[in-house]
Amino acid sequence: MTKRRSGPDERSSWTFRSIPDQSGRLAVVTGANSGIGQVTARELARRGAHVVLACRNAERGRAALERLRAELPDARVELQQVDLASLQSVREFAESFPHHRIDLLINNAGIAMVPLARTADGFESQFGVNHLGTFALTGRLLPRLLAAPAPRVVTVSSEGQRFARFDLTNLNAERGYRAAFAYVQSKRANLYFARELHRRAAKAFPHLHSLAVAPGLTRSNVLTGGANTERGALYRTVMPLIIRAAFQPTPGGARTSLRAATDPNVPSGSYLAPSGFLELRGGPAPRNQHRALHDVETARRLWEISEDLTGVRYDVDNLVHD
Question: Strand pairing of 271-274 and 284-286?
Answer without folding.
Answer: antiparallel
